[in-house]
């Protein structure tokens, strides 16, 4: 690229963090790349690769008390080095000429202000608009990003919007001042596949109409095939590969790039085990082929769990004294075979998680039956239910919230054993806890550590170990891998598969990621607005979906990892 064609030029960017008074950590190690005018550059890599740190350096948002940008680093924009710009000048650029949207809108949007007030604040600060002008402009950008009834939604608070709508509000706030560069940091992580596609299409459309550049940051290389012109692959603070998007997908050169592409489950094959990053690095990107894993349920499979006409109705407040009924699940029936996996898919609000919670009796169903080996769990008293709670366990999506931060890992594993009377004494329970930590790949050194000392993937392994203390027959996985890096996701999926092979556990696998569901599931159940749309063996439902809603879900899968022949 010539100098005139580049909006931003990053040269030899090096960022060092102070861990304490004596220790430092180099998060970014001499990174150089360009962001051309009117183009989308994808910055791809696992957690800890330096992607977000690089973006924060461009924005001037690194914490000065702990982060140091080393001498020789440059971020050139319009002939100026953003790393040496005075604070006042940088504040004028930030939000107006360069803006950013973050991964989690609920932590980025202020819960005590309406979304309109938050967009107006940006407009009044950077554009000098009056109150009425700012409000009119806020309604205009909310309409532009696809928020329905923007004249009404401008008065909504963040909690009154869905996750996809919250992300659209973040985009509206970022584009309100018509920036030249939009930095999107993991903007679609944990969103439904249909909402994810809508956000990607929206970003592509805004880039085209507004003639702006986009820096798209993600850990999922599959997504960038939808949006990127150029891809920069980062690992451990360094660039491993940089090339046009088509070249990255057709002829990836570095083993790490090939690993990111192959670790993700694909729709055209199902190996016995998913490859992980180390497999590719050891073999220079050429891991040995594997036999295909067969999936499916037949009439000969024993049934361990059956739901009949399961329903759940919530009463929502309406006005000061009124209430209205909302049917989250409506007369859903299904069976779960012994040693098999049932995948639950559908958009947010389809009833997936509600079904999982109702099966566990963590919420009370409004009607129907849940038969576990012939016993209706919904009719049992709390005392009668206790033996069954051991046999049905759940892994939640967020391991950061589901593990007690005050407990050591040993305490976390031993507590459920004490409650359910497993093990003769503390020594026996500790022995079992050590064995489980070895089984999930953490080792005995984890026993006396606290959750904050582990990564997200490791915490999810702790959550799995906690479930295994009960030796369950049924394990409900509620979006348990949705926010993990593709390589960590592959490790957790392999672990779940190993456990199922060894103990013949049955899984209910809830996910918005349809490729992961196909890899893990024998049967797939599609839900929409609380109703069962379609249910069939996983290969059948992906090859020949019968319902239009199912076809719409499948068509929204990012094409970056779908082979041309699939």
Notes on the protein architecture:
- The chain is α/β, with parallel strands linked by helices and 566 residues long.
- It has 3 domains: 1-97 and 183-262, 3-Layer(aba) Sandwich (Rossmann fold); 106-178, no CATH class; 341-348 and 379-559, P-loop containing nucleotide triphosphate hydrolases (Rossmann fold).
- It is built from 22 helices and 21 strands.
- Strands 7-8-9-3-10-11 form a 6-stranded mixed β-sheet, sandwiched between helices. A 6-stranded mixed β-sheet has the order 17-18-19-14-20-21, sandwiched between helices.
- Helix 5 (131-144) packs across helix 7 (163-175), helix 16 runs parallel beside helix 18 (456-468) and helix 17 crosses helix 18.
- The radius of gyration is 25 Å and the shape is globular.
- Residues 561-566 have low confidence and may be disordered.
Concise overview:
The chain has 566 residues and is α/β, with parallel strands linked by helices. The chain is 36% helix and 25% strand.
The largest β sheet comes out as:
6 strands, mixed
Q: What general form does the structure show?
A: globular
> CATH topology of the largest domain, anyone?
Rossmann fold
Tell me what portion of residues adopts beta-strand conformation: 15-25%
Task: Throw out a few tags for this protein.
566 residues; alpha/beta; Rossmann fold; 3 domains; 6-stranded mixed sheet; 36% helix; globular
How are the elements arranged and paired?
Layout: E1 6-18, E2 24-36, E3 40-44, H1 51-59, E4 67-69, E5 74-77, E6 80-81, H2 87-93, E7 98-101, H3 105-108, H4 115-126, H5 131-144, H6 150-153, H7 163-175, E8 181-185, H8 193-210, E9 213-218, H9 221-224, E10 230-235, E11 238-244, H10 245-250, H11 255-262, H12 277-282, E12 303-318, E13 322-337, E14 341-345, H13 352-359, E15 367-372, E16 375-376, H14 382-391, E17 392-395, H15 399-402, H16 409-419, H17 426-439, H18 456-468, E18 474-478, H19 486-503, E19 506-510, H20 514-520, E20 523-528, E21 531-537, H21 538-543, H22 548-555
Parallel strand pairs: 3-9, 3-10, 7-8, 8-9, 14-19, 14-20, 17-18, 18-19
Antiparallel strand pairs: 1-2, 1-4, 1-5, 5-6, 10-11, 12-13, 12-15, 15-16, 20-21
Helix pairs in contact: 4-5, 5-7, 7-8, 16-17, 16-18, 17-18
